Amino acid sequence: MHVGLQKLQFGGGTVPASEDDKLPSMSQLIYFCGSMRGGRQDAALYARLIKKLEAYGTVLNLSDSIGDTTLTVEILEVRECGREKMIHDKDVRMLEECNVVVAEVTQPSMGVGYEIGRASAMKKNILCLFRPDSGKSLSAMIRGADNGDQIVVKDYQETDIDDIFKDFFAKDGL
Q1: DSSP string spanning the chain?
Q2: What pTM value is reported for the model?
Q3: Integer CA distances (angstroms), 138 to 49, 142, 167, in order
Q4: Given this model, what pLDDT does residue 43 score?
Q5: Among residues 118, 110, 77, 128, which one has the least CA distance to residue 94?
Q6: Which residues pair with 7 in a beta bridge?
Q7: 99 neighbors 57 (Cβ within 8 angstroms)
Q8: Is-contact 42 71, C-beta < 8 A?
Q9: Model pLDDT for residues 123-164, shown as the tens digit of each residue
């Protein structure tokens, strides 16, 4: 099937495969990002975060993949081979259409960093989530971008996430 004629199913809605299609109309469109090819250690966590985010709106992402614990980096590379341009363009369209971006940034990922940079340039509200007990260090480019307004970086444990989401989505009528 020609990619431009299909609609791709993700999260709670249908994401257009071409620019001629429109994203689902919801009061809140949330773009969730987490590591895919950079490492799959947090896939189960991503699935739980996405589930909690659905209380605040439609989550736009590869939730059928991003939270799938059976997908390894190797499987993703084979499955996505030759589709990088389509994946990039679709993800950028979702970034353009979303109201807010939530990024789990504990597992280093060039793709997530790229998405945060693009979203920042688009003046999107961004919540970055980092688990300091992971033993990893958060990039200074992410931590330093926190301005308490458009970009918020939160250190967290999973037990804190309900309050973090509640506070973030309550600000400025998000």
Answers
A1: --GGG-EEEETTEEEESSTTS-PPP-S-EEEEE--STT--TTHHHHHHHHHHHTTTSEEES-HHHHT-TT--HHHHHHHHTT-HHHHHHHHHHHHHH-SEEEEE-SS--HHHHHHHHHHHHTT-EEEEEE-GGGS----HHHHTT--SSSEEEEE--GGGHHHHHHHHHHGGG-
A2: 0.78
A3: 19, 7, 22
A4: 85
A5: 118
A6: 16
A7: yes
A8: no
A9: 999 999 999 999 999 999 999 999 999 999 999 999 999 999
The closest of 110, 131, 88, 97 to 39, measured between CA atoms, is 110
Tell me which amino acid residue 104 is: E
Q: How far is CA 52 from CA 6, 11, 67, 130, 159, in A?
A: 28, 12, 13, 17, 12
Q: Which residues of 108-141 are buried (b: 16+ CB within 10 A; e: fewer)?
A: ebebbbebbeebbeeebbbbbbbbeeeeeebeee
Q: Count the residues in the chain.
A: 174
Where is mean pLDDT largest: 58-67, 121-130, 164-173? 121-130
Burial of 68 (0-12, 13-18, 19+ CB in 10 A): middle
Q: Which tokens belong to 123?
A: 């003046």
Give the distance from CA 65 to its chain's centroid: 12
